[in-house]
Write a structure and sequence with these properties.
Length: about 180
């Protein structure tokens, strides 16, 4: 897998931001900042720290060679892995495709709206260098009544709009109740 120069640049900038969050005067490195409100069950620090830890692991293991699925199983936290949906066998995948192909367009739209758990392999597929379109920018905790139940995550995106399903699943698999784009609020 060839890693393009923009991806590599974003990966290195993301590493800097893990330890040194940018202040509001720093210009974004992608096409802009996307913000998501993460709703938790009184465990903001736990969810935020686990998600950030996973992204650090993905970042530092993304190059020079993308790890095998078996290697990811060894280096990603068990809590995250255990919250992912079980991997399907080839036979189950084949049956799932047949079922999908038999759905009407309207039924497919309804299925796509369902908030279902992702398999680890599906999630990793969206973090691979040729698919990933967002990178960690910053996180902000709230004060007051929602300080233990909500926080804001910011990512810089390479495209607008960008597929955010893997980002949302990251936080849900880390224990979040819901992840909402501020564009939807």
């Amino acid at each position: 897998m060839v890693i393009n120069s923009e991806y590599m640049r974003q990966l290195l900038l993301e590493r800097e931001r893990f330890d040194n969050p940018p202040d509001y005067t720093v210009k974004t490195t992608g096409v802009g900042i996307a913000r998501f409100v993460i709703h938790c069950n009184n465990d903001v620090d736990e969810v935020l720290n686990l998600a950030k830890r996973i992204l650090v692991i993905v970042n530092y293991n993304s190059e020079p060679v993308w790890p095998s699925f078996e290697e990811w199983l060894k280096i990603l936290p068990d809590k995250f892995i255990n919250n992912c949906a079980k991997e399907l066998t080839k036979e189950e995948l084949k049956e799932q495709k047949i079922q999908w192909d038999n759905l009407t367009y309207e039924q497919r739209l309804e299925e796509a709206k369902k908030d279902q758990a992702w398999t680890l392999s599906d999630w990793l597929g969206w973090l691979e260098p040729d698919a990933r379109e967002w990178f960690w920018w910053n996180a902000h905790k709230f004060d007051g009544e929602i300080e233990n139940t909500h926080f804001l995550i910011e990512v810089t995106a390479l495209d607008d709009p960008f597929p955010s399903g893997a980002l949302k699943w990251l936080f849900k698999a880390c224990g979040a109740i819901d992840v909402i784009s501020t564009d939807d609020i």
